[in-house]
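Lab notebook, bench 4. Continuing the backlog of folding jobs that were queued last week. Each job is logged with the same field layout so the records can be merged later without manual cleanup. Today's entry covers Ligand-gated channel, a 777-residue chain. Filled in by technician R.K.

JOB TYPE: sequence-to-structure
TARGET: Ligand-gated channel
LENGTH: 777
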Amino acid sequence: MASTKGRVAAESTIFRRTLVAVTVMRMFLAASDACAQAEPAQPGAGTPPPAVAAEGAASGADRDGRGSAKGRASSAAITLNSVEVTANRRREPAREVPMKVDTLSSDALQKSGATKLSDYLSTQPGVGFDSGGGPGQGTISMRGVTAGKDVGPTVGVYVDDTPLGSNTVSGGGAALALDMGLLDLNHIEILFGPQGTLYGAGAMGGLLKYVTNQPDTESFFGNVGTTFSSTWHGGLNNTTNVVLNVPLKSDVAALRIAAFNNHDGGYVDATGAAAGTRINRSDTTGVRASLLVTPTRKLTFRFTATIQNINSNGQNYVDYGMDGRPAYGALTKLQDAQEPYHQSNQFYTANAEYDFGWARLNAISAYQSLRTSTTLDFTPFYAPILAAGGLDVSTVTPNSSVGTNKVTQELRLTSPGNRTLEWVAGLYYDHEHSNTLQTYRATAGGRSLGDLEKLGYTGSYQELAAYGDVTYNPTSRIALTAGMRIAHNSQDYRQETSGLLVPTPLSAPGASSDTSKTYMFTASYKLTPKSNVYARVASGYRPGGPNSMAVSAVTGQLIAGNPTYKPDTLWNYEIGYKADLLDNRVSVALSAYDIEWHDIQQYGAVDGVAQLVNAGNARIKGFEASGVVRPTSALSFNASLAAIDAYLTEGAPSVGARAGDRLPNTAKFAASVGASWRFPLGPWSATASAAERFVGERHASFAGATGSPDFILPSYAVTDLQLGVDLRYASLSFFVRNLFNREGLLSANTSYVPLGGNVWASVIQPRTIGVQLSAPF
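JOB STATUS: finished
OUTPUT FIELD FOLLOWS
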């Protein structure tokens, strides 16, 4: 109790000081506003708050990522649509990309106190995120293209030009989206809509791309940063990061090394036999080394090694009843056994680039090793079932370990830009090998009863693909693009089942293969040099695969049920408008889309067994808008919204879903608004920002589902504040996340409710107050 009072008192003091700082800021603002109004607006002056990301928001860092205070100030002067992105595998302004593209500045995210993927994506209307229990366990969705987490991914994840994560369910699929710390990132690109032509399988809803800083062959420099914060009902959090750039030979070679450590103090308590406080505290550490070698002006090599480890003491779920109320009190769950989570992620890339003049060749090789271990507490609902069968237990804890090795190779030719005819062509190879072991363990009176059941899955996935797109520019205003990708994948699978509840060990193989084609057509027209309209038609797919099997309680044999499931596909029809107007005082991006999704992969009942099936079709219609208004060079306002109408057009009896049911985890409306003020503070430059984000009501499942009953996730709103000062040799930022300490549910797992369990709900982080300091050298 004393420690809790101490934390509350400390937070209150920090909060009061923050309010005083904001008051002082307003005094300076009033003094400087008259001068600011007399100044003409500079291009892009006044950046949006980091908590409100808009299309093409400035990256906030120099391309080499030096991160000096002066460099950050100058790079902030970028208009909404002018920041360069690599969505089409070539660097170009976001305004000229015929699709919706958002960027998140790494520097701005750090200043706002963001440390994990749930923080990065929380500002993005139209992007859904199921945290899955904590860092490293998340599932991303875009534009409502989702039917749950225990399936293959619908959003691709890249680091630079390298795809990461498994395409298969046995390899973690959608449930292990890369949750990379802000490890010397330049920015994050978010591409909305199918990206299958250039980015391949799984990117049917969109793509998340981490863009890292490249080594600089000219200058020796570095950066040291640290963040301290306190969370209500939780502990102290801290992050430390270091970046060092070392030129080895001028214009020829450079080495860049970055490392970070993040400690999250947690905020969820537990009651029960394994009661505790702040049980979801976690530590994430990472290091990256990147070597750039340019032997000639035409030839470049870049080698990168990244290692990241996540260790969580427990899950961030909170127990809720089906009535929508906390079952054991706010931010509390029932826990009879501890639930640790561990993840080790390593990936190594080599990118060789040669400029022929008529085209640029990239040969990109990558290797990823991903290892995870998850323990959950199933005692509350499995112990009574086992007791009814004559087996008294104290705890039941399934442990799931996943190991995936992934090798990819890509060869890509890219023509020069600004030509009448532009093109991209490539070949892609992917080979994955996954091992998954699920072990159900039980104890009685402190004594282990051994393994009740062991389910082992060994699988391999191999894909070969060829792709290309051609852009024809008949005039300086018109661009017409057509693209296609053809991919063939084959999968092998073996399941091993044993344990006390399996009288005879069982083994069964499985296999599948399929060939898929994706297409993309766009047409864009420049209304002015800084505005255009576009139309886009694109398709996407997710690979099929072999199904796991269950042991029959009657015969003791494996039930084949549905041996394989096929790919699901979708078509996206989109129109949009992007512009920088009124001498760059106004920037706007609008898009509307209509998606038809067929043969949706989801879990359904087959012969009494839950397996993946192709069940139902869906239609998703939506509208997206983002914009920035700059009345003066010191003041800017921004807003972003997404309206999504996502529903089934064909029911799925095996799932319990009916035509007209809304797709899960998709808000009909989400929005964010913000304002940013830039003003002098003595000899320094300061920026104050405020942002409000809103997420509408969502369904956790389909209305008629029985295996995972529907649960309403209420709407919520969050307010963030930030005050940053660029000092002469450093930058200082004070932030408050979730200012009014509002409650909000990110996602909910209801699959244990039919067994007598509660709803496992992921909640937004309570009010967090902190300070961030960054010093370049």
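OBSERVATION: The chain is about 10% helix and 55% strand.
SIGNED: R.K.
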